[in-house]
Design goal:
110 residues; mainly alpha; 2 helices; 48% helix; 0% strand; elongated
């Protein structure tokens, strides 16, 4: 069964490739408006949709600011066998004091 389907699909693909190669540059003549359609869709639909989502996300974040979860001092998390070679040696390279706790807990807000 799979062999029969493979031959049918392969035959259709090879026929489509051969037809498009034999038609030459005139094969795209009927699709000239496609690029203009997608350009208009990008400018008038996609870009405003992205901007609308960005504004919506910003306004929701302002209404409900992010609070870090409660700190639980698990022994296997934030384990420091040796100090980091930068800064005070206790903070990771991409440390964010609002979201990344130290082994003793979150840093105090200023």
């Amino acid at each position: 069964m799979a062999g029969v389907l493979g031959r049918i699909v392969g035959r259709r693909i090879s026929t489509a490739v051969n037809l498009s190669a034999s038609e030459g540059p005139s094969a795209t003549a009927g699709h000239a408006g496609g690029m203009d359609l997608w350009r208009k869709l990008s400018f008038f639909v996609a870009i405003p949709a992205v901007l609308l989502c960005a504004v919506h996300t910003y306004l929701r974040e302002q209404a409900h600011p992010h609070q870090p979860p409660e700190f639980v001092p698990y022994e296997h998390l934030r384990k420091r066998d040796k100090r980091f070679p930068w800064g005070d040696g206790n903070k990771t390279l991409f440390h964010n004091p609002h979201t990344n706790p130290l082994p003793t807990g979150y840093e105090e807000s200023h």
